[in-house]
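Severity: low
Component: inverse-folding endpoint
Summary: output formatting inconsistent between runs
Steps to reproduce: submit the following structure tokens with default settings.
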């Protein structure tokens, strides 16, 4: 049993492509990835400033996730494909760049992936609560046990045995961008992001001890 609580007033549009490691589609086209080599390359790319355990979750479980969601997309009329990169004109690169991108055809035609997931959640008997803006996570100095939300009917507290905080980054927060990613602010002339990606969810996690 679960409860989905969302700041927006409806499902957001989403990019339909995603990175997967050793999915059935990729393997069928010769796109096998060496997990250890990929982990090393991503760690190099991050200058070692990363948590390898988090990366390994994606490497080890992303194909299983795709096996779960792809039938839902297929039932909604969305066929999945795996992009294979063209042969590099100069023979490739010294860096390890495996085949990862998977996408559903006609990606921006309804229903979107999030629409499909919403229908799946509703069919399972769960109704997401939209227009719930997180104010703070509830905790006693240890485990998070829920959250307090601002709604059109006032503030509500939702208690939970387990809490999963799913939040975007902070591209819509100029102060955080200037402080934490000044090179992006200095170099980018255009950007595309969700207006609600204001970094508040990240702050809430930090304030709760994360």
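Observed output (run 2 of 3):
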């Amino acid at each position: 049993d679960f409860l989905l609580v969302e700041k927006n007033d409806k499902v957001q549009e989403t990019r339909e492509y995603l990175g997967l490691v050793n999915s059935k589609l990729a393997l069928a086209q010769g796109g096998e990835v060496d997990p250890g080599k990929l982990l090393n390359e991503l760690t190099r790319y991050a200058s070692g400033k990363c948590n390898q355990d988090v990366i390994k979750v994606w490497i080890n479980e992303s194909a299983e996730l795709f096996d779960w969601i792809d039938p839902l997309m297929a039932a909604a009329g969305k066929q999945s494909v795996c992009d294979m990169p063209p042969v590099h004109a100069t023979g490739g690169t010294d860096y390890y760049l495996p085949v990862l991108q998977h996408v559903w055809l006609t990606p921006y035609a309804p229903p979107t992936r999030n629409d499909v997931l919403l229908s799946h959640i509703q069919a399972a008997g769960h109704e997401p609560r939209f227009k719930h803006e997180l104010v703070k996570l509830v905790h006693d100095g240890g485990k998070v046990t829920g959250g307090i939300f601002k709604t059109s009917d006032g503030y509500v507290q939702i208690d939970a045995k387990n809490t999963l905080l799913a939040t975007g980054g902070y591209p819509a927060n100029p102060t955080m961008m200037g402080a934490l990613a000044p090179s992006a602010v200095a170099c980018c002339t255009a950007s595309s992001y969700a207006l609600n990606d204001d970094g508040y969810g990240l702050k809430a996690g930090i304030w709760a001890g994360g």
